[in-house]
Amino acid sequence: MIHPIPAFHDNYIWILINNNSAEAWVVDPGDAKPVLSYLTEHNLKLTGILLTHHHHDHTGGVLPLRQQYDCIVIGPAHLQKLVTHPVEDKDVIRVFDAQLEVIATPGHTLDHLCYFTNNWQGNKVLFSGDTLFRGGCGRLFEGTAEQMHSSLQKLAKLPHDTLIYCTHEYTLANYEFALALEPSNALLQKNNKKVTELRQKDQPSLPTKLQLEQDTNPFLRFEQDEIHANACAHLQQPLAKLSSEKFALIRKAKDIF
Ligand code: ZN
Ligand code: FE
After folding, report:
1. Are strands 98-104 and 136-137 parallel, antiparallel or unpaired?
2. What is the largest CA-CA distance in the chain?
3. Relative to the alpha carbon of 13, which ligand is closest?
4. For 202, left (φ over 0), alpha (ψ -120 to 50), or beta?
């Protein structure tokens, strides 16, 4: 079971639970408090932490959690003060019975890692941190548009039925931008309506599925003529030729949207 623990304004800390052993892992615990309450309430022991990147809203809870639980911390190697098991691209780690592959996805930050497994209780699962969101992608704080472009292309090659667990509830804002670039996309309109209803009931819009992202996310659809033309019009820039330039235009248009 994978469950969202809401944190701060719009973060989710995903908790992975092994019911047989009453053990849990968390992904990107920016805040220890809601995690500790969840663990106590459900009688779980924290045995591991996965980190996608160094930002404080993803790592702030690590030290307080480790004061309470003797758990391991897997993440980018440069976070020596937090990480007990440094990993890099293509490493394979084990969480309970599942094997997770580490995928380096620089762009949002240079250290950003995603974690993929093709068998989490029968599902394909990706923890995408702040790289791939439902309807969007992370801002470029450290990397270049080119790096983010190739990182997202890596993720786009994963199986289409992969469930994507990202760290932020940004979906409605992302859909507003996506619809501005691709107003004719019926599936996008339908999902915007669906998520609006979910959010009114305070329910998460996540996880998403890779296939849905392929069909609605402008950061995977920048080659579509309508999207490209609208992004250029928005930025008052001429049409681009290269794929990575087209991607960069979408990122730029979102930054000023
Ligand atoms: Zn971040
Ligand atoms: Fe974040």
Report:
1. unpaired
2. 58
3. 2
4. left
What residues have a C-beta under 5 A from ligand 1, the ion? 55, 130
If we measure between CA atoms, which residue out of 63, 151, 163 comes closest to residue 109?
151
Q: What is the DSSP letter of 162?
A: -
Q: How far is the CA of 141 from the centre of ligand 1 (A)?
A: 8
Q: Which residues are catalytic?
A: 53, 55, 57-58, 108, 130, 168
Q: Tens digit of pLDDT for each residue in 82-126?
A: 999 999 999 999 999 999 999 999 999 999 999 999 999 999 999
CA–CA separation, 9 and 128 (whole Å): 19
pTM: predicted TM-score of the whole model, two decimal places:
0.97
Ligand 1 centroid, distance to 19 Cα (angstroms): 30
Residue 230's identity, in one-letter code, is N
Which positions ≥6 away from 23 have C-beta within 8 Å?
17, 44, 45, 46, 47, 96
Nearest ligand to the C-alpha of residue 139?
1
Q: pLDDT tier at 1 (50, 70, 90 boundaries)?
A: very high
Q: What is the mean pLDDT of the chain?
A: 98
**Beta-sheet pairing, 72-76 with 85-87:** parallel
Q: Are 32 and 61 in contact (CB under 8 A)?
A: yes
